[in-house]
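Design review, sub-item: ligand-bound model
Attendees: FS, YL, KQ
YL presented the inputs for the iron/sulfur cluster complex:
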Amino acid sequence: MNLTLRIWRQNNSDTPGQFVDYKADDISPDMSFLEMLDIVNEGLIKRGEEPIAFDHDCREGICGTCGMVINGTAHGPLGATTTCQLHMRHFRDGQSITIEPWRARPFPVIKDLVVDRSAFDRVIQAGGYISVRTGGTPDGNAIPIPKPDADLSMDAAACIGCGACVAACKNASAMLFVAAKASHLNILPQGKPEKDRRVLNMVRAMDEEGFGNCTVMGSCEAVCPKEISLDFISRMNRDYLKALWRNR
Ligand code: SF4
Ligand code: FES
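KQ shared the predicted structure:
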């Protein structure tokens, strides 16, 4: 496959960026999207040019670092798929592909396609944990958890913190991420003691980081590579209102 890439280049968040065109020739349809970028970078390095900076780690859809906007869609055209799991067979020979970083004020550009997602870490630090009691390891069956609760919690825990939901939202809202991270603990008995504090603190941290409000457009759910449901936002809103009432 021969492709024309239009890629966002930017030195840092203090300097303006611009699109630069590159040719990607002899690309195998079986390559992943990141392998295609590796090939382009090898060519740039051979020519003595600066390679394109992009984030990645596991390349298995687990770590959540590989986010980029491909032809206007966070993580590209294939549903429920991270950029690293997207393959070139989903594009056409001769196609032009525009590649941009996440665009949201709380995610400043570090370089090219790499953004700083540490705002998510600070939201997690505000409440995305449970207290660990010291002492012997409790028996695995000591706290029975109904299967529907375990399944629901696991669905929420599938969130990999990639930030696509923020990038896709016209308000740069992080509600889907925060709802997933709060819910996966709030649903389980181990998360109940800190349930109110967790939801109040995580929502406060989310607001302080500058993420916008949810207007239930559903763009977040549509691009989420882990198919996190909007229902978790409703659940978090209910938990938040109850916590406000109990702590008034
Ligand atoms: S909710 Fe989905 S899109 Fe948002 S951070 Fe989690 S995995 Fe990524
Ligand atoms: S590189 Fe880890 S999810 Fe894509």
